[in-house]
Amino acid sequence: MAPNTRDIVDRRRAPPYGLQSMLRLLTRFLGLLLLAGGFIALIVDGTRSIAGGELLVTTLRRGLSEATPALYNSLVSEMAAKSALDMAMAPLMTLPISLSLGALGALLIVFSHKREADRYWRR
Fold first, then answer.
1. Could you tell me the pTM of the whole model?
2. Are 102 and 39 in contact (CB under 8 A)?
């Protein structure tokens, strides 16, 4: 008896845990780490605001300059040479760390989801 062509096609499918699935998992994990970092930064800013009696927000510029001063100084010197890049990066550097980490983490999580298969009525 000749094999069914459907069985042959099913055997040739990619394994369920291929490279694309692993990259999707890594992207989702990185997104969750960034989202958790954003929540931690929000809690730290909230604690500092309560202790200080006023709203204190850590900007991305201040966070980078305190965490990695050498990297921040090299980034500033590179941006000073390119005025167009400086104009684009200046508003981004004034964003709160919690917002920037949270937004980047949420984007990575959203982009890591698998696209749904088309339904039979959409074909």
1. 0.72
2. yes
